[in-house]
Amino acid sequence: MSRQTAVPAMLMRGGSSKGLFFAADDLPADEDTRNRVLLAAMGSPDPRQIDGCGGAHPLTSKVGMVSLSKQPGIDLEFLFAQLQPGNDIVDTTPNCGNMLAAAVPFALEKGMIDAQTGETTLRVLTLNTGVLSDITVQTPDGVVSYEGDAKIDGVPGTSSPIRIRFLDTEGSVAGSLFPTGRSKDSFELDSFGALEATCIDNGMPMVLVRAADVGRTAYESVADLNADTELKNILEALRLVAAEKMGLGDVSARNYPKMCLLNAPLHGGAVHTRCFIPHVCHDAVGVLAAVTIATACMTPGSVAEGLAVVGNPASLAVEHPSGEFAVALETDDSGRVSSAALIRTARNLMRGEVLIPTSVWQGKA
Ligand code: NQM
To answer: Which residues have CB under 6 Å of ligand 1?
Structure first.
C-alpha cells in the first residue's frame, strides 16, 4: 500500500498543450490545499518538474478541472490552471482554449455525461473568465473518437476534429476589448524610447507590436527569439507598463498579458506572428490568442493595419512558427466580432491516479 494520496486523473493533450485533467470533486475543496496538490502533481516550482508530471515548459505545465454544471443551459464547467516550471503560482485568471478542447472528451471518458451517437455538442462555461463555448466532439457509437483527418499545426499527425465556437470572449480578463480605450497606444520605455502597441483582449489579454518597431521581423526561429535577451527585456518593460494602462495592475508574477510580434503574412494568411507567453516564445499560437490577434487584424487603427491582409473574416489564418491557425470570426451589424469558431484536436494519453505526498494532502475525509 502506498502512503501517498491517490487522486484519479487523466493526462490529456488539448490542442498544442498538455496537462493533467481532474474531476473538480476529486480535488480538495479548499483552494490553498488544492493549489498545493496541483503543485505537487506537476512538480512545480522545480524548473525541471522532475518530481511531478509537468513537462518543464509552460505549454505542458497545465491543469484542467471539470465538473457538471448546475446552471440552466450549461452542461459542463471547466477551470484552467497555469502552473509554471520555476515558480509556485497556480494561476486561474486567464483562459486556455487549447486545454479547453480536452474538457468534453475528459467528461465523456469519465462518464460524467452521456455521449450522443455521431457527434456530441456540450455547452461549456470556462470558470476562469465566464466565457461560454459550444464544443462538438466526434462520438461514433457513443464513444469519443480520437482518430480522424483533422490536422492542427504544432501537433504531429491527424486526429478527430473538435469544433469550438466561442460565444462571448470580449474583455475576458481586462473587462473590455480595448482596455486602454484606444486601438493603438504609444508607450515611452526608459530603456527603449517610444513604442506603439495595441492592447486588446478578445479571450486573451495581449499586447501586439509591429516586429519592425523593435528591429525584428517575426520570421525569426523560436530558438533565436528565446535566446534574444535584449528583445525579451524590451517586451517585458512594455508588458509591465501596458498592463497598468490596461487596468491589470502589477503583472510581474502573472502570465498575461501575452506579447506578440506581428509582420505581414508569408504564406497567404492574414498575419505572421511570434507570441511570448509571456517570457517564452510560443512554438505555435494560443487559441484565444489567435482569436484576439485575428480581431486586431480586423480593427482599423491597430498596429496590424498595413501589415495584415484581411479578406473573409470567416477564414483568417494567423501564421505562427509551426504553421497557421485558422479562425472564423462572425461580426454583427456594427462590425463588432460577436463569435469565433475554430478546430482543435485532443487525445487522452493516460488515465490512472496521481500520487500526492500525504504531507501535502491526506485526502478527503
Ligand atoms: O490562448 C498558451 C496555449 C496557450 C493558451 C498561452 C491558449 C489560448 O497555447 O487560449 O491556448 O498563451 O500561454 O495553450
So the answer is: 16-17, 58-59, 95-98, 204, 258, 277, 286-289
Closest-CA residue to 91 (of 255, 277, 239): 255
What residue's CA is closest to ligand 1, atom 2? 286
Query: Quick one: which of 6, 16, 41, 24 has its CA closest to 107?
Result: 24
Atom of ligand 1 minimally distant from the CA of 285: 9
- What is the whole-number distance in angstroms between the Cα of residue 300 and the centre of ligand 1? 25
Distance from C-alpha of 161 to C-alpha of 145, rounded to nearest angstrom? 9
Burial label, 333 (beta-carbon count in 10 A; 0-12, 13-18, 19+): exposed
Q: Give the chain's end-to-end CA distance (angstroms, integer).
A: 18
Per-residue pLDDT of 119-176, as tens digits, reads 999 999 999 999 999 999 999 999 999 999 999 999 999 999 999 999 999 999 999 9
Residue 233: what pLDDT? Answer: 98
Other beta carbons within 10 Å of 73:
8
> Cβ distance 155 to 320 under 8 Å?
no
Going by pLDDT thresholds of 50, 70 and 90, the confidence category of residue 311 is: confident
Q: Which residues pair with 246 in a beta bridge?
A: none
CB 319 within 8 A of CB 305: no
What is the bridge-based pairing of β-strands 118-126 and 90-91?
unpaired
Report which ligand 1 atom has the smallest distance to the Cα of 17: 14
Predicted TM-score of the model (pTM): 0.93
pLDDT score recorded for residue 334:
87
Cβ within 8 Å of residue 97, ≥6 positions away: 15, 164, 166, 203, 286, 287, 288, 291, 342, 344
Residue 300: cis peptide before it, omega within 30 degrees of 0 = no
Question: Which atom of ligand 1 lies closest to the CA of 62?
Answer: 14
What's the pLDDT tens digit per position in 175-208? 999 999 999 999 999 989 999 999 999 999 999 9
The C-alpha cell at 348 is: 487522452
